[in-house]
Amino acid sequence: MSDPEHESSTPLFLSGGRSGMALTPEQRRVVDALCHELTPEQMIWLSGYLAGAAGWSSQSQSPPLLAPQGAADSQSLPVVTILVGSETGKSLLVAQHITRRLEEAGMVAQLRDLAEYNPADLRKVPYAVFCVSTHGEGEPPLPAAELQSYLQASKAPKLDRLQFAVFGLGDRSYPRFCQFARDIDERLVSLGAKPLLQRVECEGDHEQQAENFAQALSARLLAQGQAPRLEVVPGRGAARHLPTAAMAAERLLLSGRGASKAVYHIELQMEQNPTYQPGDTLHIQPCNDPATVAALLAAMGYADSEQVQVNDVTVSLHQALLERCEITTVSQSVAAAYGQMAGVNALTERLEHETLPLEQWDVLEMVRLFPPQRLTPQGLVDLLRPLAPRAYSICSSPSTHEGEVHLLVEQVFTPPGRVGAASGFLATVPVGNMLQGLSWHENPYFHLPQDPTVPILMIATGTGIAPFRSFMAEARETGRRGFHWLVFGERHFRTDFYYQREWQRLLKEKVLSRLDVAFSRDGFGRVHVQDRLMEQAQLVYGQLQEGAHVYVCGGEAMEKEVRQTLLGIIQSQGSLGAEQAQEVWRQIEKSRRYHRDVYGG
Amino acid sequence: MNTTSKPSELEVIKSKSRALRGTLAESLAHAITGAVSPDDVQLLKYHGIYMQDDRDLRDERLHQKLEPAYSYMVRLRLPGGVLSSAQFLGIAELARRYGAGSLRLTSRETVQFHHVDKRALRSLLQGCVALGLDSRGTCGDVNRNVMTPHHPFASPHHQAMQELGEAISRAFLPEPSAYEEVFLERGQRPVTVDSFYGPVYLPRKFKIALALPPNNDVDVFAYDLNFVGLVEDDRLARLVVLVGGGLSFSHDDARTAPYLAQALGCCRPEQAVAVARAVLLWQRDHGDRSDRKQARLKYTVARLGLERMRHDVEELMGAALEDPVPFAFTHRGDHLGWFEDQGGRHYGLFVPGGRLEGNGLERLCAVIARHDEPICISPNHNITLVRANLDLSSELDALWGPPTPMAAQAMACVSLPTCPLAMAESERYLPQFLSKIASLWQAHVVQGRPPSVRITGCPNGCTRSVLGEVGLVGKGPGLYNLYLGASPRGDRLGRLVAEGQQEEHLLARIEEAFALFASQRLAEEPFGDCMNRLLDTGLLADRAAVSPGGAAG
User: ipTM of this complex > 0.95?
Assistant: First the structure.
């Protein structure tokens, strides 16, 4: 404490003790420690804060430790509103990251969930940052539905006082990548708002891009002289955990003999005791098939030992293709980039004039069909998409399966014989092997309701049943006693009824209150989950009236049908007009009683 | 009957069944399982349906967190095994649609669908009704499918026996309201107690067969009630009534055993239904309802005596039976290939293992599409195409080719993987077993008619193994009892010469028997008779002498 060097480094304006002003040694120790951590901007802000606090003190009010919204001087301090429209929690992670960075830079940042945000408030705020995902064919995430209709309305107001930035998240394998982010961006400009930054369209490593975006944003705002102020952010945190390892303890093929699919139940013994909740996901960094990588290297005529740069790190080309690059699928943009960079004019021309069966190709197939005229190893690595981690809904429950994470994995063969990166790797992992680079991710919008008596309606197709196994294991363990209704759809009763015995037992134990199944390819009518809902329209409506939460997990197209069906049920059962039904539905979405976890294909 | 004993569990299920409805409608609608409730499993039988599961996949599916691969076997009521060609083609189409494309001809002259999904049962049964067929009472504690001499078109006497068989079949059908309500979906029917069977039906299954000497193709001594037709002055003059046969037994219950039917008396043909009625009523009221292993007519007769039975039956009939007269059978078996009789020229088609599926079924259908006359299923799970057109010759011959002499008489029950009773392989084991003993036969005997070989996967006796000259009865996986010495006319049971043994031991005993047959056979002596004689004389040892301690216990 008496280190002279330390003392001399203490900023002068905090060193009042030298002139005999009263800080106890303990106070002094706290201030010193704090100053050690603060950035120069924060110190400047703190001086203002303390000055303000001195004012409150003189009115014998204690300074609020945390300034609530609208308190005291907030009128004079512009707030940066971070608006998040998230379904999987990924956009929320980005939004939290940006919020944290702005706060660290001493700014007032307020994170708001679009589901609960009134878009009309956009007229009043000076700064808005949108963190939004895009789903299906360019659609907004559920919580952003109201924002979209507000912005797209012909009577949308002028927003010429607003400055904004957009961070979009998406998946480039969809044709309308980040379309919703683009829509917001263009519409705000047309309504007179001014962009603070160029829009970011992010796929894959969102952490790095969020960091870059946050830095650029705070620099821009500071340059505009946005007054710094601290604010604590409400809302739930979507925690991301550090990668861990696990041992494959069990691998079972659940698909019965003669099945048209191969679906595996995999039990992982986690090295670190997992702290996930039912509904959360496990991310797995996949690894490509070594034989395919070798064949690709041979087809390109490259040596294994070639060195390339990936994210500013030098690795061997072999390693890059094995662990860093997506080679199992070919998107339109990858094909176009390859056509250009490799000088394959035939490919470029055909891409322009016809629809090539890209969904049947992998990179090797593309290279075989269209051998490169010129392409450096670095060029190849640069044009490929990063090998993104695969997310799987966890189908175990922490209270039942201690120390374990269970997954339900469909091995994807597209086209026949070729193996999808993560699923192929998981489906073939020998029991007893260690898996690295796993992390569980909170899926904050797919958790069980806090109130254990609230009814839940779970709708799943295929491996989408996974989170509901987790839900029901949890319900069984914790004695949750709401009405638990599962509607499950797949192709064949005999081979694709995943966890059939467990569901039968849960029904017998009355943990699961009701189970409806729809098997579409058994030759007894092409029934789907939405047909079962329709058959039980009265019960569905009754449950919704009792405040049921609806969870949908499975394919995008199914989710759309289910949503339409539910809307139709609300309309017919409630004898409502289309507008009124829409309004009821909006309320359900707004109060976050509709949860979806869906995927393409 | 010990009337103080508690009725067996099944008696309770029957009595509570609301005339065979149980909770079948709910069970069929229950989409979470391919099974029906345990009580409904029992009641399904009365409608001709057995719940089964693929036993090959049981363990695998347990591991896969899936319930057993449940499916259903549906057995048609087909007295005498007679079908029109249109009905046959219709059945084949139903099998394609609902039964995994597979049909099984049975040793009791009928057809079974297998691998039927619970959700397809109604469609299948309604499809059958549209063809003029049904499955009522082909299982359960009622009169089962009635067998008649094969084939019914061979002569006017055969025709007469067929008509009697059909009349008996009609007379003792269980009341149809549940069948019509649950499966045919003809709306709700009043629940009424079955006017003939009463609320609890019979104590146990009941089988009836009719035979016409000299061919005992139906194995007329093997069932509860049997009629042997006697022709005098070229007309069917009288019937010898045989009662109390039944080949089923339990490995672990010494009170059980295969029985041959005994003559109760004689009646006129027009009395057949009345006799059957009296015998069924007698068994209904006197059979053991507390112990299903003692419930069949054979045990009732053994308990109460044949004399008492005859007295009661005559009283129930209000008429006296004549005393039995002697009759004689000279052989069993089917005519295969082209043959002629009073009814015309026919083709006997050998069907390996009684199984029709895949390419074989398709080719057979193509032939039958050009055949306008009836088709009859034989007691040896073969087919006779009545008055077949000679033009079909080459196609018929090409179907499965002519069988070897041993295969031509061989039978096997369905057994694994679908039959819930199966203890050892049967249908799937028959081809390899036959080829092994055929080579032993060739090595030792060369000449003479080879023995009839019959395998059943359990002691229930579906293919009448203990009446096979070489009879195998499954006891455990890969383990069989071996019976030798049965009469080739079906009128003497075989004797146990190896108990619960593996193939190697069975083949050794059979080889020993073939060698003895080659050296000891009297002129024209059939294999079964020869073995019986050698067992009597001790030249062929029974199981105790050859394999001390070899019994599986």
Answer: no
